[in-house]
Amino acid sequence: MELAALLPFALWAIAITIAIYFGFLAILTIPAVQRQVIYLNCVTLTWFQDVDYPETWGFLHNQVTPFNLHTKDGETLHAWHILPLEVYRRHEPRLIQEPPGVVEDVKTRLSFKLLREDPNALLVLYLHGAAGTLGSGWRPPSYRALYAAAPDRIHTVAIDYRGFGTSTGSPSEEGLLTDALTLAEWAMNEAGIPSSRIVLFAQSIGTAVAISLAHHLAMKPTPTLFAGMVLVAPFANVELLTATYKVAGVIPLLSPLARFPRLHALLNKFIVTKWPSKDKLAEFVGQCHKMAGDNPKYHVTIIHAEDDWDIPWTQSETLYWNAVNASLPMGISYEELDKEKIQNRIDLGAGGWIMQHQSPKGCLREEIVKYGLHDRIMSYPVVSLAVWRAFETGKPTLES
């Protein structure tokens, strides 16, 4: 009798839960809500910390120079220039004499001159993931990991996209591409670093921005190619991501509807933000293979942890296959590539595995590690080595 009495309450609870979920789906059709769910830019994760003073995150005094970049559409982007440790050590007395805080004209600072005037300097352009600021979570440790393999050469410049941190504006696909272009143009034109000495590093949604940037510049009549891309915890596109994505690694987005393909496809039509990374990466690789000359044009490393709760590592599998397929004249099926992986991949035991596809025009490398979650992996040596490898073996050339 007691179970019978509880049954109506249980049914009501289920009905209310379903109603709330479908109400949530209805709200998701509003573009402004979609943007916040995807970018989480209002969640700063650095409350009560001042991003104008990076020493708060354990950096040496003036090892990081905060400054602003200005986009062609009128937004102001907050940026950090992180000096590699050995460069800082060599010039520490002069660096600590400079005033701290955000710089109005970064070209007046010693750190900028050390980047611009060193013919051996290498530069990582850092495009972070959703939520937070450039000082949030595992990002500061990851900046230190980037120069670990060459602490006398590898500089890093990171930005907060529009709508993130103290940057102005509101995020969008077009807007974030503009932000990335602003950063790249500053690096090449203001800092004077040729694209052959630049590697794009990106994580999570930043990987979509990096791929979009590389694609955009490669498709120009006079293409620009970077030394390489290192993509950590990427996704194939938003449509495929919604089938598995959990907001903050906890709240499922559309995954409960993934069992109903037609309904899932219908709801995806209302999602304005697309980020078609798998298609753009394939087009980028295909475009590089059309270019004249036999020298390498691209070096792409995809890194993902199997225990990533936010974006499943299988998203990297899809991205990698699309890139490899575009690199082959006759293409390759997903199943055929899977068979090749079984035969040719390098098994690292508890370290995961590596698969590499090499062609005369470039290198595509997939590294799946066992552990690292979604963010912690950014500070791991696998990233340090991938960045150094991209600098060493990327070095694309363009022949007319």
Automatic annotation (TrEMBL):
Protein name stated in the entry: AB hydrolase-1 domain-containing protein
Domain of life of the native organism: Eukaryota
Domain AB hydrolase-1: 124-284
Xref: Gene3D superfamilies: alpha/beta hydrolase
InterPro entries named among the record's database cross-references: AB_hydrolase_1 (IPR000073), AB_hydrolase_fold (IPR029058)
Membrane is among the record's keywords: yes
Keyword Membrane: yes
Keyword line: Membrane, Transmembrane, Transmembrane helix
Pfam families documented for this protein: Abhydrolase_6
Transmembrane intervals: 6-30
